[in-house]
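Example record

The entry below shows one chain as it appears in the dataset: sequence first, then structure tokens.
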Amino acid sequence: MVTVFYFILFLFSVVLVSLLPWWLIYRYSNLMAILLHDVIKYRVKVTQSNLKMAFPEKSLGELKEIERKSYLNLADISVEALRGFTIKNSVVRKKHKILNPELLDHYFSRNQSLIGVTGHLNNWEWGALSAGIQLKHHPIAIYKPLSNKLIDWFLKWNRSLRGTELVPTNRTYETFYNNKHRPCIYIMVADQSPSNLSRAYWINFFNQETACLHGPEKYARMYNYTVIYIDIIRVNRGYYTVELSVLCENPKEMAEGKITELYMKRLEESIRQRPESWLWTHRRWKRKKPHIVNETR
């Protein structure tokens, strides 16, 4: 019953937001940002700690400004995600425009699949909308399923209407295998902390030893799929551009760990350009690299 209740509440929120004009949606977002930061204080200490670690050269005033803007970014993403369930395709093309989709035509003509990596930067949620209606490759987004099965079903169904297939992480291997004969782009938002440290790659990210997911590199090397970096940029409130660039052309020729290093370096560059646009509320450096201690007898 609890699952059904939250699903009904979720649908009510989707319908309500769909009826509001954009200017009113962002007025609500302004209020939501204040509530999250000043009233609820949602992960404020985590955010402050992350920012201090990432930008030791910045003054307290500069960090405070990034902190407040990051909560507005979080609020915007939240309301835009709800509006994304009912937004028209023509509006998606304007508000989440892929600048250079032709970059992928060469691979599509050769029936070659790709791996697209991005981060929780700006509105990544609308990427599942824009990819399905602006790219020739079949988009498959690898994601962590929601705990509410009804909302999870609705999310997958809604995204499929735009041409994007959502696949849970535990079906990654079979999905790559089953789709190896058609041109797909596997979209991975790969800046989360891995649960299994034994398979993680440890990369210097914002001068911190950072555990990184092994998935994108694993499958890129397994199938020798070109890796594409997806850079999402907010050009105005509610308007984003998406720029694609080749990160790695021949993964099998790369040293192990190098693809992940290239991805994290490129992601850091994007974040440094727009630091308020990343989700600093995540405890990105909660895991420490295990060190083997040699015992002498």
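Notes for this example: The chain is about 45% helix and 20% strand. Residues 293-297 have pLDDT under 50 and may be disordered.
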